[in-house]
């Protein structure tokens, strides 16, 4: 199972250093063989034993690669360049310094801030050319949901990206379930994941108000390969607890 924590605009460099240390300790005590995401190509052949944890801190809070013992550190955002005159942006040279080779692309919160399809596609192609692992986020808003046109919407969001990229992970995050404390209904998640599975063999995550109470029901869905957790990952002990609950049957 892939369990990713999106810290969004939370945690400073100092607090994330403590977070990373506590997460390493917690994962060591949980005692699974947590696989670093570097081996994602093996996911489909070894799903039952593949447990990988990824955390996306703010870029200014990245820790040294050596501080990520049992988890991978990813970038919430980057600009498709190595470096250059792009005020305020973070390029690949800056990610490389921290050994970051997992990136989030297409999150609805970034789309909401003005990232359009053209930029998202450019980011995808750049990350692919770099060989980064990509968690590509898709998800409909509540009006699309109520109009029962989510599938067309999701297929549009996925058009123009290489769905066969071997380091692709797709995260389904319905916007109406993000940050509300109420996840989408499991039957509905199951239906959408089945649809996404018909489009791609990439591992499929669900995100949107995942917490310690609903993680098992969601992660046991047939096509669910993991979760992308927001607020329930911000407190490291809560995140460790969630990981423990999600993986305890494998002990
Ligand atoms: P919440 O878990 O807070 O709903 O956030 C989900 C999310 O946006 C993860 O990327």
Automatic annotation (TrEMBL):
UniProt superkingdom: Bacteria
Keywords of the record: Cytoplasm, Gluconeogenesis, Glycolysis, Isomerase
EC number of the protein: 5.3.1.1
Signal peptide: none
EC top class named in words: isomerase
Subcellular location: Cytoplasm
Entry GO CC: cytosol
Reaction(s) this enzyme catalyzes, per UniProt: D-glyceraldehyde 3-phosphate = dihydroxyacetone phosphate
Pathway in which the depicted protein is active: Carbohydrate degradation; glycolysis; D-glyceraldehyde 3-phosphate from glycerone phosphate: step 1/1; Carbohydrate biosynthesis; gluconeogenesis
Keyword tRNA-binding in annotation: no
GO molecular function, one term: triose-phosphate isomerase activity
One of the protein's GO biological processes: glycerol catabolic process
PROSITE patterns given in the database record: TIM_2
Stretches of the chain forming a coiled coil according to its record: none
Family of the protein in this entry: Belongs to the triosephosphate isomerase family.
NCBIfam families, per the entry: PRK00042.3-2 (NF000728)
Quaternary structure, from the entry: Homodimer.
Name of this chain's protein: Triosephosphate isomerase
Organism expressing this protein natively: Candidatus Campylobacter infans
């Amino acid at each position: 199972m892939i369990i990713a924590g999106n810290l969004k605009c939370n945690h400073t460099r100092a607090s994330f250093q403590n977070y990373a240390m506590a997460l390493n300790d917690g994962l060591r005590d949980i005692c699974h063989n947590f696989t670093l995401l570097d081996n994602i190509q093996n996911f489909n052949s070894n799903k039952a034993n593949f447990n990988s944890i990824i955390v996306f801190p703010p870029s200014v809070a990245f820790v040294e690669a050596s501080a990520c013992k049992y988890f991978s550190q990813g970038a919430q955002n980057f600009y498709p360049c190595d470096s250059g005159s792009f005020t305020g942006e973070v390029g690949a040279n800056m990610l490389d310094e921290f050994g970051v080779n997992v990136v989030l692309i297409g999150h609805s919160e970034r789309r909401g801030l003005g990232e359009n399809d053209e930029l998202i596609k450019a980011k995808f192609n750049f990350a692919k050319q770099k060989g980064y692992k990509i968690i590509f986020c898709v998800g409909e808003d509540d009006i699309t949901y109520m109009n029962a046109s989510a599938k067309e919407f999701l297929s549009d969001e996925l058009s123009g990206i290489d769905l066969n990229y071997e380091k692709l992970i797709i995260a389904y995050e319905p916007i109406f379930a993000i940050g509300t404390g109420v996840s989408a209904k499991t039957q509905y998640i199951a239906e959408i994941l089945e649809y996404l599975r018909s489009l791609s063999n990439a591992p499929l995550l669900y995100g949107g108000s995942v917490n310690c109470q609903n993680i098992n029901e969601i992660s046991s869905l047939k096509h669910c390969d993991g979760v992308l957790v927001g607020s329930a990952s911000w407190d490291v002990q809560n995140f460790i607890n969630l990981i423990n609950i999600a993986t305890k049957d494998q002990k």
